[in-house]
Design brief:
Helix content is 58%, strand content 0%. The chain is an all-alpha fold and 111 residues long. The protein has two domains: 32 residues, no CATH class; 55 residues, no CATH class. Helix 3 crosses helix 4. The radius of gyration is 20 Å and the shape is elongated. The N terminus is likely disordered.
């Protein structure tokens, strides 16, 4: 099953030679994993990229997510699965400060 997965993944990745010799399977697996990390987003990478964008520019979190999606050709509708809980809390706090969301009746400590 694992070798079938490698073969099917290799068919979709153009930068990897399709030589199926088993002697280079360890290095080929590393190369596949690195390419997959570059090509596909996970929640940790997305959060890290957004945090870096906010720190290095004068964008707020909402603007940073929109900018990131535009630069990387990602649909905004698909981003909700990539937003981690801490990032959601920061977005919520920012939206409350900008009056995008109604303030809750719960007491909130000033930060």
């Amino acid at each position: 099953m694992k070798s079938e997965t490698k073969v099917s993944i290799l068919n979709f990745l153009p930068n990897i030679s399709k030589n199926s010799s088993h002697t280079n399977s360890g290095s080929m697996e590393k190369e596949v994993n690195e390419l997959l990390k570059e090509k596909f987003l996970c929640q940790n990478k997305f959060t890290s990229d957004i945090e870096t964008l906010v720190l290095n520019s004068e964008l707020n979190y909402i603007e940073a997510i929109i900018t990131y999606c535009e630069e990387n050709n990602i649909e905004l509708e698909s981003v909700n699965k990539l937003i981690s809980k801490p990032l959601k809390e920061k977005l919520k706090a920012e939206a409350l400060d900008l009056n995008y969301l109604k303030k809750t009746t719960r007491s909130r400590l000033p930060i």
